[in-house]
Structure formats: structure tokens, C-alpha cells
């Protein structure tokens, strides 16, 4: 039976109407889903933390420098050429051990001249003494005038003064002659030798460089004990207590820990770094540690502010009216609270007032987050936040 053209047209129209309706419904559904997704994306995701009490013990690790108990740069006191050196780098020396000898012919000539001058002045003094004695004898018998005796006595005193001056000059050159031999000032280790045989050294210094400066000939360090210097930041100066002990690690012994005892501090802060130089002492009987060693210094002390709360420094918001933090209420709305901060560190900050343990504080809040905004609380991926502060869901 043949299909009526009219029936085919009606069926095609119905199919077209159904397809058009499907397109309209799909578009409406897509628009609704897009609107819902847009609204959801408009609500920022944030992670929140709960304020924690400050620990009863405070611990920090700072860089330090280990130095010798005594360390002396040794300079030449006479000018001349190095005749020979006897102690090299790392040599263990006793007080008075010869380190080097200096050949100083100019000094030797001056010394010889001083002794000759002394001999000449001594002869003149002896002559003046004999002459004065004779004039005094004649004066006692009134064979000569008193004026003549006085002149003779003055001549003797003048000759004595010249003799004493010549003697002091000889003593001066004798002292310089002894400086031709460079000796160790105390028991220790030679940590530097800056001369070789034949080098010209200058009085008051070592080898003269192109700029006219002079370096030391040797450096001798007493390392039976060591001093360690640490720059303590101003905010952590409260850890400096008389019984403070530091745990020290050094690069050459990564698996060992050494102990250092607090000795003293500068009691003043460097205005450029806001740190105070602090000195510790370390025993070094086995000579294992060397001067100039970099040290990682771990300090622990009682926390005077353990009753305060702590927050990560990333949660603080700097505003014109002061320091604030962004909190989230039970309805997921943002409220800013003004806080009073205490000691600040790179990772955490003490909060003296403004929050309590029930607050949910936003960690690292977005810059465009406003009062009353709605937020969505999420849990960060593992490893994203290593601050150690408690998370609040």
C-alpha cells in the first residue's frame, strides 16, 4: 500500500519538532550547569588552621663559626730577608720554638755602630770623671776657684748622660737583634705560613705586595679549647641563659654532635643585622676541630611565652589599621580579627591577643578576600603545608 505524501510530511514535522525540543532542553540544562559551576567557582577555596599554644621549649638552629682559643698573627719586627723557616703548616709548636730566621745586615751594621758609639762615649765619660776628680781635689785645697770645680762637675754629668743615652741605644738594637729570630708565642699549631726563603720582609709586617701592604709571617693558634661565635637574632635573645648548652654539628663530622657551653654575649645589637655576637666554649683535647670551621648550632631554652598562641606567619594580613587574621565562622563567612603580635620568626608568629583556640584561621588568605565573603574550606594536599599547625575542618 503506497504511503500518502501528506502522512510522510506530518511524520517529518513531528520528528523535526522533537529534535528542536531536545536542542532547547539540552541548551537550558547546559546553561543551568554552567551557572551552577560559575557560582561554585566564585567561592574561593581556603584551608584553615587552629591556633596552637606556644611550646614550653623553644628550639632554633643558627650558623656559627669556630675559632681558636688564642690565635696570633706573627709579624716581623725587623726588615730583612728570610734566611730560613723551620715550621710549616700544621706543625705543633711549643712556646719559644724557632719559626724562622731573618738576615738583616743593615740592622747588624747599626748595632755595630751603636756599640762603637758606646765605647767612644764611655772613654769620654771616664776622662771626664778623672778630670772632675782632680778638680775636686784641687778645690778642697783651694788651689782653684769654686767656679772651675763646678764646671768640671757639670762636664762629668754631661758625659754620664751621653753614656746612658748610648747604652740605651745599644739596648734598643740588642732587642731588635733578638727579633731576627721569630719564635712561637705559646703552645699551638701553625695555621699559616706566608714566607719563603729569600723573601724580603718589612718591619711591622711580612712580604710587601704591590699595593704596599704587608701580611703576617705566621699564624699560631692554641686549639686545646675553642671559641664559637654565633649571631643571635634580637627576637631570640631571651634564650641566652647562663646554663645554656648548644648542640653543634660540623660538615666534616656529619654524624657526630659536639657540645658547646655559653660563655658571654656582646650585650649589644648590631644595627645592621639586629643580632648580638654570642660566644660559646668547646673542649678540643683531641684536636678534631679546626679554627674557621662552619658550625650548625642548635639551641634549646625554656619558652617564657608558652601561654601565648602561635600562628604561621603566612596567615597574617598587614593592613593600615594594624595586623589582622582572616577567620571563618560556622556559616563559612569570612571575618577579619585584629591581633597583637609578639615575637615573629620566618615560619611562625606569637599572638599576644585577638584570637582563641576555637577560631578557624585562614592560612595564606587570598589578597582579594573581603569581610563577609563566603568561602569553601578544603584540606590541602599532603606536603602542601608543612608548618605543623593543627588543621580545622
UniProtKB/TrEMBL annotation:
InterPro entries, sorted: Beta-barrel_RND_2 (IPR058792), MdtA-like_BSH (IPR058625), MdtA-like_C (IPR058627), RND_pump_MFP (IPR006143)
A Pfam family of this chain: RND-MFP_C
Domain Multidrug resistance protein MdtA-like C-terminal permuted SH3: 312-362
Compartment annotation: Cell envelope
Residue ranges of domain Multidrug resistance protein MdtA-like barrel-sandwich hybrid in the record: 72-204
Keywords, comma-separated and alphabetical: Transport
Domain CusB-like beta-barrel positions: 230-302
Superkingdom in the source lineage: Bacteria
Similarity annotation: Belongs to the membrane fusion protein (MFP) (TC 8.A.1) family.
UniProt protein name: Multidrug efflux pump acriflavin resistance protein AcrB/AcrD/AcrF
Amino acid at each position: 500500500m503506497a504511503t500518502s505524501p501528506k502522512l510522510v510530511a506530518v511524520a517529518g514535522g513531528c520528528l523535526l519538532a522533537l529534535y528542536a525540543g531536545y536542542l532547547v532542553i539540552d541548551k537550558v540544562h547546559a546553561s543551568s550547569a554552567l551557572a551552577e559551576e560559575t557560582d561554585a567557582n566564585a567561592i574561593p577555596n581556603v584551608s584553615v588552621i587552629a591556633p596552637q599554644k606556644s611550646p614550653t621549649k623553644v628550639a632554633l638552629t643558627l650558623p656559627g663559626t669556630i675559632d681558636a682559643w688564642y690565635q696570633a698573627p706573627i709579624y716581623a719586627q725587623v726588615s730583612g730577608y728570610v734566611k730560613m723557616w723551620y715550621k710549616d703548616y700544621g706543625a705543633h709548636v711549643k712556646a719559644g720554638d724557632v719559626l724562622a730566621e731573618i738576615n738583616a745586615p743593615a740592622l747588624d751594621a747599626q748595632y755595630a755602630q751603636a756599640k762603637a758609639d758606646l765605647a767612644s762615649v764611655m772613654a769620654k765619660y771616664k776622662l771626664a770623671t778623672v778630670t772632675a776628680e782632680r778638680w775636686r781635689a784641687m778645690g778642697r785645697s783651694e788651689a782653684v776657684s769654686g767656679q772651675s770645680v763646678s764646671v768640671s762637675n757639670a762636664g762629668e754629668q754631661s758625659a754620664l748622660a751621653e753614656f746612658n743615652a748610648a747604652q740605651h741605644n745599644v739596648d734598643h738594637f740588642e732587642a731588635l737583634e733578638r727579633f731576627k729570630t721569630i719564635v712561637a708565642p705559646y703552645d699551638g699549631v701553625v695555621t699559616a705560613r706566608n714566607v719563603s726563603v729569600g723573601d724580603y720582609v718589612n718591619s711591622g709586617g711580612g712580604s710587601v705586595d704591590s699595593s704596599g701592604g704587608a701580611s703576617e709571617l705566621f699564624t699560631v693558634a692554641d686549639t686545646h679549647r675553642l671559641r664559637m661565635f654565633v649571631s643571635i637574632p634580637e627576637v631570640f635573645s631571651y634564650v641566652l641563659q647562663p646554663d645554656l648548652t648548644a648542640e653543634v654539628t660540623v660538615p666534616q663530622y656529619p654524624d657526630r654532635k659536639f657540645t658547646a657551653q655559653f660563655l658571654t654575649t656582646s650585650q649589644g645589637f648590631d644595627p645592621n643585622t639586629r643580632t648580638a655576637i654570642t660566644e660559646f666554649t668547646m673542649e678540643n683535647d683531641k684536636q678534631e676541630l679546626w679554627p674557621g670551621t662552619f658550625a650548625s648550632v642548635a639551641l634549646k631554652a625554656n619558652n617564657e611565652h608558652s601561654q601565648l598562641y602561635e600562628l604561621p606567619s603566612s596567615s597574617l594580613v598587614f593592613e593600615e589599621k594594624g595586623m589582622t587574621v582572616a577567620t571563618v565562622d560556622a556559616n563559612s563567612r569570612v571575618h577579619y580579627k585584629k591581633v597583637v603580635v609578639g615575637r615573629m620568626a620566618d615560619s611562625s608568629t606569637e599572638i599576644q591577643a585577638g584570637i582563641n583556640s576555637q577560631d578557624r584561621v585562614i592560612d595564606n588568605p587570598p589578597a582579594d578576600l573581603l569581610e563577609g565573603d563566603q568561602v569553601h574550606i578544603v584540606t590541602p594536599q599532603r606536603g602542601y603545608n608543612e608548618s605543623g599547625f593543627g588543621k580545622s575542618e
